[in-house]
Design brief:
Layout: H1 5-14, E1 43-44, E2 55-62, E3 65-71, E4 82-90, E5 93-104, E6 112-117, E7 124-129, E8 133-139, E9 145-153, E10 163-171, E11 174-181, E12 190-199, E13 205-207, E14 211-215, E15 224-232, E16 237-245, E17 252-264, E18 270-285, E19 289-294, E20 301-305, E21 313-317
Parallel strand pairs: 5-9
Antiparallel strand pairs: 1-21, 2-3, 3-4, 4-5, 6-7, 7-8, 8-9, 10-11, 11-12, 12-13, 12-14, 15-16, 16-17, 17-18, 19-20, 20-21
Length: 321
């Protein structure tokens, strides 16, 4: 596989002065006292600022056991960026097991905020940083690392955009991407973007015409990031997570809303529709939800949190209608 020349230039600019090192793992010891337990219904996946879940993609599930790949928004050399997580939600109790994966094929990303599996592939994903860089990655045959196949920017990046959301839609053997600037408070709503997406023979992402829409979260009301993740259900409903973040120690608050729809026709045209009155599906008090992925054919979403100094947590919810 090759990386386009502009990609190598981009990596050099963004990562100048930073050493390239393998991920060292999700840390489970907090730096400011005893671990804070997850709220009822949530299962802890880490206990400090380096273990928050900023994106996730469900790779398989059997009954109440889910295997997911998670993104972590760490920024320093040697800190973990990608990990495999097994989540067991049995009647006897819920547990998580986290196994860090090394990052290969380029400099470590800074601030990964979203992760999505590529439909129709085995072990390929798109990971997106807050600045709008899209990493096309593939899990290595030994399952111990991810290899970068390509790096490219999102199209149509707006002034001040800060991305925490990205998902893919597959219909009629075609793909579309949906992503969002998170927005910030009353003065900056989220901007939603959608475009057809394809890959050339080198794994490079090729985006088509971009459609935009504005979104304001109906909940939470204070210190809100209007779009902390997006997901699209089997029926085409657009789910948007929103979160309140008052600082590294919280308090946090979140909700997932049925915010509209996304359609992709046989000709590859994408239509993005935002509802006039979005329907709040669930509230999640005490957590900052930054990752939502609908499990195909189940109606269930796996949700992950980045609760900053309190680490990360997982749960499931029947919200993917």
């Amino acid at each position: 596989m090759r990386l386009r020349k502009t990609v190598l230039t981009t990596i050099a600019v963004l990562c100048a002065g930073g050493a390239v090192a393998a991920g060292t793992g999700v840390t489970v010891a907090r730096t400011n006292g005893a671990p804070a337990p997850a709220a009822a219904g949530w299962t802890q996946a880490g206990h400090d600022v380096r273990s928050g879940i900023s994106g996730l993609a469900v790779t398989s599930h059997t009954g109440s056991t889910y295997r997911v790949l998670i993104a972590l928004d760490n920024k320093r050399p040697g800190e973990n960026r990608i990990a495999q997580l097994d989540y067991h939600a049995r009647e006897s109790g819920r547990t998580t097991t986290v196994r860090p994966l090394a990052w290969r094929g380029g400099a470590e990303p800074i601030d990964l905020e979203a992760l999505e599996s590529v439909p129709g592939t085995s072990g390929e994903y798109l990971a997106v940083s807050s600045r709008g860089l899209v990493y096309h990655i593939e899990v290595t045959d030994d399952g111990k690392a991810v290899q970068v196949r390509d790096l490219s920017p999102l199209p149509a990046i707006g002034r001040g955009d800060n991305f925490e959301s990205f998902t893919l839609v597959s219909r009629h053997h075609r793909l579309a991407a949906v992503w969002a600037d998170r927005g910030e408070g009353d003065g900056r709503p989220a901007t939603l973007y959608a475009a057809p997406l394809s890959f050339n023979q080198y794994g490079e992402s090729v985006f088509g015409t971009v459609t935009k829409a504005v979104y304001r979260a109906p909940y939470p009301a204070q210190d809100v990031r209007h779009a902390s993740d997006v997901a699209v259900t089997d029926s085409g409903r657009l789910l948007i997570a929103s979160a309140s973040d008052e600082g590294d120690d919280g308090p946090f608050d979140s909700a997932v809303t049925d915010a509209g729809s996304v359609t992709l026709d046989r000709a590859g045209r994408v239509r993005l529709t935002v509802a006039r009155s979005p329907e709040r599906l669930r509230k999640f008090k005490g957590h900052k939800v930054e990752a939502v992925d609908c499990v195909p054919g189940s109606g269930t979403a796996v949700l992950g949190t980045d609760d900053e100094n309190a680490g990360g947590a997982l749960t499931t919810a029947r919200i993917c209608r």
